[in-house]
Amino acid sequence: MSIDMAQFHQVFFEESFEGLDAMESGLLNLDMGDVDDEVINTIFRAAHSIKGGSGTFGFTAVSDFTHVMETLLDEMRDGRRQVTQAAVNVLLGSVDCLREMLTAIQDDSDIDVETVSEHQQALEKELAQGGGALAQPVEVAAEVVEESVDPGASPGWEIAFSPHLGMLRTGNDPVRIFRELSELGDLEVTVDFRGMPSLNEIEPEDCHLSWKLILKGDVQESEINDIFDWVEDECDMAISPLRDENGDYIEAQAIDVEPVVEAVKQQPTPVAAKADAPTDVNKTTKPTVKSDSKSKDNKSSGSIRVDTSKIDTLINMVGELVITQSMLSLVGEHFEINKLDQLKNGLSQLERHTRELQESVMNIRMLPISFVFSRFPRLVHDLSTKLGKKIDLKLVGEQTEVDKTVVELLSDPLVHLVRNSLDHGIEMPAERLAAGKPENGTVILEAYHRGGNIVIEVVDDGKGLDKEKLRAKAIEKGLIEEDAILTDKQTYELIFMPGFSTAEQLTDVSGRGVGMDVVRRNIQTLGGNIEIISELGKGSTISIHLPLTLAILDGQSIAVGDERFIVPLGSIIESLNITDDQVNKVAGKGETFLLRDEYLPIVRMHEIFQVESAQRTNLMDGLVVVVEGQGVRCGLFVDDLLGQQQVVIKSLEANYRKVEGVSGATILGDGSVALILDIPGLVRLSNQ
């Protein structure tokens, strides 16, 4: 029976992209000159896994390219060459090339052969310049022969390989090991059947065979050890030089490995572990939960790794829910008035278990923010080199968890912010020294929880924002009037206006005025807001405030006539009754009220949404809910407050169309629909 290997491709791609991230992170952490064994081994293993997996699935272009990378990494690992910045840069470029190759294969598109060739030539050039194995192949080979083998004989190895009984259960297949060995030289395989039990005693998943392997060719023992590296704890083996006491080869009664190789191609490929990759304990504690999405545009949302502790909690919650349901069923079958207290207790338990179940399900979608932060060390490395600046990046709070959807949509806005800090914020080394600062600038990327939100801050110790320069540029571009009176906060927020830029010259990093307004719009789309704090000469802090999840919202239910609206709880400052002497009418600009020395605009909800059934139209009769969005405060005039509740957000745009001032909708307990207010949009709408 033929097995469709394509069914395992997605897992291979996911693991390969994770491996590339690990390689990139490791390369950025390498110290020049010295080799950190742990770091270099992590990089090498990731490359080796990608090479082996791509070879298994027939992606020969990937495996051939990775083999050259592996050679360079192996020389660094063995101490045959020092780690240099040039070599690291070449390897980083090769990681990018590999990522593009895998993406092309995943998308069923053509690989850019020219780009691959360019990076491969750079790798081979680095190998040749470094005096490694490819630099002087003839001389090195001759030295090995003279030292280890009698004149006239060729080097080789005899390998005794005896897998443990359960090795196959880990997904490690001897045939793949033989295939790797056959790429090193001429391989002869002798199988030992002596451990085979009788037919009726055979367990198909147990390995009862052992082998003697004869490998002829110019092969280093370390190369053989690398191949058996992943199964060293799953087998007994011995490697010895291929010579008898007279210096002659030990001939073996060989079986042809090719038919076995062909046979394994027809078998399903285990995805839990491979002979080409280490058996990762975390793979058993973090299963992959698949979604039904097949769209190539949504590959990133196709799966998510979930810790089994979260799955266990979810299963426990379901168990509790089943018990409560059983109890309520028994009460309902023979209900009597004296069982009313039992019914109330059961409903109370049901409410508690349902809430806990909801929290457990939402927790499954939570990912550490490190999924976003991990791309920035490379970004800072590349851009600081390009700009000629010295910049240190510090990541804080990488394990702070946030909803998967937020993680995916947060990446691009953060890239804009970090690029601006590098380009506009951090000064050139000479300028920093002249200002009495350290030569190296610092950018801090920090994430933490505050209430029901996640806060992400981009902090730099650069030159900060010049308020006068910002104001002058805004007047020059006609964005504000010359006599406009702006607070510091409003002045800083000018940079979010479309087309605004203070760059003195255009670069491919920033300065075209098409970034920061997009950042704010994207953050608003996520239901968040962005703020700037800056001090001239000392640096800037840009804070992003986002909800932890886009699926559940803590809200305050308000009544306007017969209609119900939900105000996000995080937007509410306070609620109050106002008096007539607090209200001021501004000609042509509506109404304001005085709250602690600050005049706030009043938004009459029944007028904005044309609610004819509104019970209160006199400001002194209703309530004013003070809310804040994107640094702007206003008062919502409503009939009444109905209570706080968690609501499930339904997209209005996906099911109907975009409505200004409304971010979504929810279904209430009585089956009616309530609109969820978009506070910044509501303020804009009232101003119109």
Strand order of the largest sheet: 16-20-21-19-18-17
Largest sheet: 6 strands, mixed
CATH architecture of the largest domain: 2-Layer Sandwich
Structural class, from secondary structure content? alpha+beta
- Enumerate how many helices there are, as a single number: 22
Structure overview:
The protein has 688 residues and is α+β, with helices and mostly antiparallel strands. The chain is built from 22 helices and 24 strands. The protein has a six-stranded mixed β-sheet with strand order 16-20-21-19-18-17. The chain has a five-stranded mixed β-sheet with strand order 8-10-11-13-12, covered by helices on one side. The protein has a five-stranded mixed β-sheet with strand order 22-14-15-24-23. Strand 17 and strand 18 form a beta hairpin. Helix 11 (308-333) runs antiparallel to helix 12 (340-364) and helix 15 (404-425) packs antiparallel against helix 19 (516-525). It is flat and about 105 Å long.
Fold blueprint:
Blueprint: H1 9-29, H2 37-56, H3 60-77, H4 85-106, H5 113-129, H6 137-148, E1 156-163, H7 174-182, E2 186-192, E3 210-216, H8 221-227, E4 235-241, H9 257-265, H10 281-285, E5 288-290, E6 303-305, H11 308-333, H12 340-364, E7 366-368, H13 370-373, H14 376-387, E8 391-396, E9 401-403, H15 404-425, H16 429-434, E10 441-450, E11 453-460, H17 467-476, H18 488-492, H19 516-525, E12 529-535, E13 539-547, E14 552-560, E15 563-568, E16 572-576, E17 583-586, E18 590-595, E19 598-604, H20 605-608, E20 623-629, E21 632-638, E22 640-648, H21 652-655, E23 662-667, E24 673-677, H22 679-687
